[in-house]
Design goal:
The protein is an all-alpha fold. It is built from four helices and no strands.
Length: 93
């Protein structure tokens, strides 16, 4: 939770430390990115712990199936949402 709090509450300070000026055009996007990464940090770290517990119990099939499922959903959602949102941005993705 400390990482999540640091990224969400200290996003501006972190960007200042990295040299991204307050008037920079990429600063709002960088702050939004850090906020989302901060909110997802506890879930991501929890999943790593659960995966380690399964591996420690000599069950490597369950984490593999879980990762395969998540990857399949990610590919399907990327195919569904990225082309629709990228139109007009002048970028490939």
């Amino acid at each position: 939770l400390g990482i999540a709090a640091a990224l969400t509450l200290g996003a501006g300070r972190l960007l200042n430390t990295l040299g991204i000026a307050a008037g920079s055009p990429m600063r709002p996007s960088a702050v939004a990115y850090l906020l989302l990464r901060g909110l997802s940090a506890p879930a991501s770290l929890g999943l790593c712990c659960i995966q380690g517990a399964f591996r420690g119990a000599r069950d490597t099939r369950t984490p593999l199936l879980g990762l395969a499922t998540v990857t399949a959903v990610n590919v399907a959602l990327d195919a569904a949402f990225i082309p629709a949102r990228a139109l007009g941005w002048g970028a490939a993705g």
